[in-house]
Amino acid sequence: MQQTFRLVIDCPDQVGLVAAVSQFLADNQATIVEASHHTDSQLGRFFMRHEIKADTLNLSLENLRSAFAPIAESFSMNWKVSDSHQKQKVALLASHESHCLIDILHRWHSGELDCDIPCIIANHPQMKQFADWYKVPFHWVDFKNQDKAVAFAQVEALLDEYQADLTVLARFMQIVPDNLCQKLAGKAINIHHSFLPSFAGAKPYQQAYDRGVKLIGATCHYVTKDLDEGPIIEQEVIRISHSDSAADMVRKGKSCEKTALANGVRYHLQDRVIIHKNKTVVFA
Amino acid sequence: MQQTFRLVIDCPDQVGLVAAVSQFLADNQATIVEASHHTDSQLGRFFMRHEIKADTLNLSLENLRSAFAPIAESFSMNWKVSDSHQKQKVALLASHESHCLIDILHRWHSGELDCDIPCIIANHPQMKQFADWYKVPFHWVDFKNQDKAVAFAQVEALLDEYQADLTVLARFMQIVPDNLCQKLAGKAINIHHSFLPSFAGAKPYQQAYDRGVKLIGATCHYVTKDLDEGPIIEQEVIRISHSDSAADMVRKGKSCEKTALANGVRYHLQDRVIIHKNKTVVFA
Amino acid sequence: MQQTFRLVIDCPDQVGLVAAVSQFLADNQATIVEASHHTDSQLGRFFMRHEIKADTLNLSLENLRSAFAPIAESFSMNWKVSDSHQKQKVALLASHESHCLIDILHRWHSGELDCDIPCIIANHPQMKQFADWYKVPFHWVDFKNQDKAVAFAQVEALLDEYQADLTVLARFMQIVPDNLCQKLAGKAINIHHSFLPSFAGAKPYQQAYDRGVKLIGATCHYVTKDLDEGPIIEQEVIRISHSDSAADMVRKGKSCEKTALANGVRYHLQDRVIIHKNKTVVFA
Amino acid sequence: MQQTFRLVIDCPDQVGLVAAVSQFLADNQATIVEASHHTDSQLGRFFMRHEIKADTLNLSLENLRSAFAPIAESFSMNWKVSDSHQKQKVALLASHESHCLIDILHRWHSGELDCDIPCIIANHPQMKQFADWYKVPFHWVDFKNQDKAVAFAQVEALLDEYQADLTVLARFMQIVPDNLCQKLAGKAINIHHSFLPSFAGAKPYQQAYDRGVKLIGATCHYVTKDLDEGPIIEQEVIRISHSDSAADMVRKGKSCEKTALANGVRYHLQDRVIIHKNKTVVFA
């Protein structure tokens, strides 16, 4: 895949912002592959993402960063430049449900998700068989016979060891403790099996069945200390009816979960998501 | 349109039920246009709807009812037989938003909704212009300068006077008092502008905006005394993104509202909905 | 609604393009409400739309145009600047089906579609009732008792007389002659009741029924001399099953038709559509 | 999973049909899990599927068949009774694209698809790695260095050897010869990567890109000798825009392909599909 640099910015809105950025890019001969802008007029805030062909730029990545820094400062920007060839390390956390885990693994294996997967961590040992096939190191962490705090300390140590850039909770089903949520802020993605804010918490399909809704869904969001309350990246829904049993709902829901999670992760890996307060701008 | 009779049943599930009903229909020469069955195995309950060609039956409607009564009794059925040529009287309640009102009126006027519309009742007088065009009696009820209980008493008197079989709250935006909810149980349909149970109550689009969801929707449900908690008939959703302003969300949401309400009302008018506890079976 | 100017551009892709445009806007103090870019790397072509707050600009519309012309020329741009307060005149053509006509009229009447509607032209006189209510001049053109070329000459004369900027064929059901298609190129929008390219031509619902598809749809496209082959602006689909009768398909299809047409017209009116060869870029 | 028998019938419509079948079931104490009916009034044909709890029936499967035969004959029924515990053997044909193959394998492995998979046949050897993990016998058939007729003779011999009840072409990408199509009539399912009848034949995504459609899709259908013309079981679509590259379209399309194929196969395995002429009734 061609190498691109991604310049992602959010800052207070003001006149001259786009001109300054695009003049900078033009001055350095950057060919723009994709440019996305969003002005939130309620907040007076501006969001921007440029993807540029690396080989057209007459600057190295490092020099690009240092050359852009003064502009960024003058407009009070939150910003980053990332290199598409520097693959992010994505750690996968799983439990006993395999559908999301395998879906992510297959998309990665077939080249659809452009990242490295340094490890799979699960609280059920049978996930090892999938890890082995994909030749990804597997770690079982016992959440049953030891204190959860101890188990999460082991998870955290593994994430540190593998230097995970992103942690994906592929139906992990354990409530992440506050301190770890804070450490992973903006770098941990969860899939919840309902169209939030409906049916937060445990057993969303049962809740949906009990309420008699005609649609079920899934929500991909960043992990925060408030359970199922983090910034939403992507949601999917599917129609159900009275004739759908609990098993049918689970089956249909899995399809939503896989799609929402895969899209959310891809958007994140391509630096298409900007978190602002408790919401996201997604340049899909 | 050809005349049909609709036999709608729910009862405890047991062997021989379908045989008894279909033997009864066959004995009376009924040609079945449409037959729908549902067994709720968790509840052990059976739901059934038959639509039969009236002119193939060798019984009048009245005789059909009396002939079927013993079967119904022996299986402890809730049941009814309705005649497609006996149009239901549908009273429309509206406020200042016209999109749902007009959508229902146009579907009725063009023959898509097979019913009579004896009156439109609104708490904003400007709805009269639409009523006039469609030649439907219009009643303005003042909810601003008089007590709400008094206003609702006027609404109730009008529903009684026009002998409404069904009351449709086409974005009526007033909380119906408990006693009227109970009187209209199973005979009043509301459209709520969110995918319930998310964003019940006031200003659902603002709630959706604040939460940063990626889908908004609408829910058509029976009115009960617990606000936005009644049995759901139909739901619609539509995708939104960060670039959708509040106005965009309202526009997209209106489309969901119209579709969900029109479908819900049509299902009800065609006796396709069976309410059981707080859920519905919808033989769509 | 706040006044905006919309600068819409397409041209060969090259470095410095965005910088030149955004520098121009910044130099003239323009606050950008919305900016959209698209590079078609296969074609080497660039598409761009800016919507700017009129009152922040230190130029009149006329001066904006003359000031921008040299930049446009240097980059070989197709371009235009439009003023949101200069309402486009939209002539509606209809036949005997009213659903699309009324939908457009209601969206216009309620302020969702920001345009003028100077006239409705139909080949069935009963559409007059709707025109009257909305106080829009109505013209019946007889397509039955006179030659079609004569009838179309009358339509053309009316479009000229009312100085229509856009002509919307709201299920007009007559094949527009080549010369008129050419005259209206990029300024006439049709709704076809199938998901093109499936089921072009006559009776698409019957074709869909005969083929046994599980989805039906509608396509909003620009009119060209090749029937149902023009650039597509928007498409909608809806699920059907074996249990949907021809009447059900028509009913469901109408919902797709209304939505696709309304969206397509709105995109056009807001200068969100750029036609290039036989395709569109839609900055939705 | 509980054992059920499925009685699937289609025949000319006539009064007394349902009564005869349901009386037969009641007389033999069958508890009905699910009953579906459809009358095609244009064709005067009736379609019916019953799923009954095997252990409530006072007849063996064999006796059920012989007891029902006279009823079937008297109503000129096409019919079958199948046993949910007699797993169908599903042979998978694949080429070099793995997404549909793996999706089917994972759904089978996780218990969602209730069948046996006796073999995978592919014209690219690298599919063996997946077959190995799932412990399914793998056969590579060379379509490149030998005549296609010879290659297909090898495929046919393998299908015979493994006694395949159903053959699934999981993006097999080879045109099946007429004689094999006829032999597999109603027992071979293909996934085509467009919403048929749009873009039949080769390179549908390229065709879609060239036409500029705003939706792409996938179609699951029975294989017939007329390429991409067989009875459709299921279709899926997804929205695209000008900003979707060819690679994006492939990615989005794959999601449709997997869902449509998995649903189509599941419906077939559960005897929910009745083929009549070139269309299907699907009791989903």
Automatic annotation (TrEMBL), chains A, B, C, D:
This is Formyltetrahydrofolate deformylase. The active site is at residue 228. InterPro entries: ACT-like_dom_sf, ACT_dom, Formyl-FH4-Hydrolase_C, Formyl_transf_N, Formyl_transf_N_sf, PurU, PurU_ACT. It is an enzyme of class 3 (hydrolase). Transmembrane segments: none annotated. It comes from Aliiglaciecola litoralis. Pathway: Purine metabolism; IMP biosynthesis via de novo pathway; formate from 10-formyl-5,6,7,8-tetrahydrofolate: step 1/1. Pfam families: ACT (PF01842), Formyl_trans_N (PF00551). Keywords: Hydrolase, One-carbon metabolism, Purine biosynthesis. Residues 6-86 form the ACT domain. It comes from the Bacteria. It catalyses: (6R)-10-formyltetrahydrofolate + H2O = (6S)-5,6,7,8-tetrahydrofolate + formate + H(+). Catalyzes the hydrolysis of 10-formyltetrahydrofolate (formyl-FH4) to formate and tetrahydrofolate (FH4). Signal peptide: none annotated. Gene3D superfamilies: 3.30.70.260, Formyl transferase, N-terminal domain. Belongs to the PurU family. Its EC number is 3.5.1.10.
